[in-house]
Specification:
Blueprint (H helix, E strand, L loop, with lengths): L1 E4 L5 H13 L3 E6 L4 E6 L2 H5 L9 E5 L19 E3 L5 E3 L5 E5 L6 H13 L4 E3 L17 H14 L3 E4 L6 H7 L2 E4 L7 H9 L4 E4 L6 H13 L5 E5 L17 H8 L4 E3 L1 H5 L2 H13 L4 E5 L17 H17 L13 H7 L5
Parallel strand pairs: 7-8, 7-14, 8-9, 9-10, 10-11, 11-12, 12-13, 13-14
Antiparallel strand pairs: 1-3, 1-4, 2-3, 5-6
Bound molecules: phosphoenolpyruvate (PEP) and manganese (II) ion.
Length: about 350
């Protein structure tokens, strides 16, 4: 249930409403907007119905939400959530700027990571991705460089100023990965690993939550709810293609999921065209469709030499292909009222901050 306060309700009036709700045994989530405050009530709603909320000073409306997700629901927040990733770079996901996160599927070594970070930054990427722990379908496939990769990611961050995004596979790794990364990625295969989601919810790191291979949109939002329920509000969702009967692509990019999610939730929505496509030649067209449909950002795999990649070489873009994609992306983003930061050759965080407001 949601309580909408009247315009200009004072702090003491809001505090009194909160106290009233807590007294009957429910938890609250308060979202302050410019004019109104929204008080989300979590718990047994029957108790609230008996609590005569409309009689309280400052209560304008009491709304029932028929959705299983509450904290993730659009009605629960007075404005879209902005997620800040990497303090130094000033990167914000969910605002007008469309954020592109790019890098290799897996961190394979120092040189390739440095080289990729510099190239994607120069093309306008605002964060670096790179797997340290890889969820592979085969136990015999390359599993990632682990801690060494985390150290390399941190090293490259200090060199380029790019915040780093990397996957965490297991609740026992959350502390370690959070020590190095700016964003904790939850992969498709782990979207319903509830122990992992709760542990990540207890950390305060931004989270990139990918949609499960066969998960519905509601299931994705319920997964986000696990993180939010533990108090971590910095959640970004990522559509990365779902499994269907179609075999021409690795997965089927669910474009409709973007406007549906934007309607249902206040959380930013990113799209990973690489894992949806499975082939490099399809990545740019899917990325353009995602931008046109309202995505807040993209997650794209880029490798210095995709033919030698240890994972996902088929779908990884070369530096040149990524640069072409970014040029096209700027045009499409502009057409739908979004911006993508201008390409930058500079290598310091302050230079990034200086170009962060540049629009194309
Ligand atoms: C990845 O981002 O490299 C990855 C493993 O993605 P997903 O979990 O979407 O398959
Ligand atoms: Mn990959």
């Amino acid at each position: 249930m949601i309580i909408v306060t009247s315009i200009g309700a004072t702090d003491s009036v809001i505090a009194h409403i909160v106290e009233h709700v807590e007294r009957v045994g429910l938890r609250v989530n308060v979202s302050r907007g410019e004019q109104r405050t929204i008080i989300g009530c979590i718990g047994d709603h029957d108790k609230l119905i008996a609590a005569n909320l409309m009689r309280l000073e400052g209560v304008e409306q009491v709304l029932k939400i028929g959705k299983p997700y509450k904290l993730a629901s659009r009605a629960f927040a007075s404005s879209p959530t902005h997620v800040s990733i990497g303090d130094a770079a000033g990167t914000v996901v969910g605002a007008r700027e469309l954020i592109v996160i790019a890098g290799p599927c897996s961190v394979e070594g120092r040189d390739m990571l440095h080289e990729t970070a510099r190239a994607v930054k120069q093309s306008g990427a605002r964060a670096l991705r790179g797997g340290a722990f890889k969820p592979r379908s085969s136990p015999y496939a390359f599993q990632g460089m682990g801690r060494e990769a985390l150290e390399l990611l941190a090293e490259v961050r200090s060199e380029t100023g790019l915040p780093v995004v990397t996957e965490v596979l297991d609740p026992r790794q959350v502390e370690l990965v959070a020590d190095f990364a700016d964003v904790l990625q939850v992969g498709a295969r782990n979207m319903q690993n509830f122990a992992l989601l709760s542990e990540i919810g207890r950390s305060r790191k931004p989270v990139l939550l990918k949609r499960g291979l066969s998960a519905t949109i509601t299931e994705l939002l319920m997964a986000a709810e696990y993180v939010l329920a533990e108090g971590n509000t910095q959640v970004m969702l990522c559509e990365r293609g779902i499994r269907t009967y179609e075999t021409s692509t690795r997965n089927t990019l669910d474009i409709a999921a973007i406007p549906v999610l934007k309607r249902e939730t206040h959380l930013p929505v990113l799209v990973d065209p690489s894992h949806a496509a499975g082939q490099a030649s399809l990545v740019a067209p899917l990325a353009m469709a995602a931008i046109a449909a309202g995505a807040d950002g993209l997650l794209v795999e880029v490798h210095p030499d995709p033919t030698c990649a240890q994972s996902d070489g088929d779908q990884s873009l070369t530096f040149a292909a990524f640069d072409d994609m970014m040029r096209q992306a700027r045009v499409v983003a502009g057409a739908v009222g979004r911006t993508i930061v201008a390409p930058s050759g500079a290598a310091t965080p302050s230079a990034i901050a200086a170009t962060a407001t540049a629009e194309v």
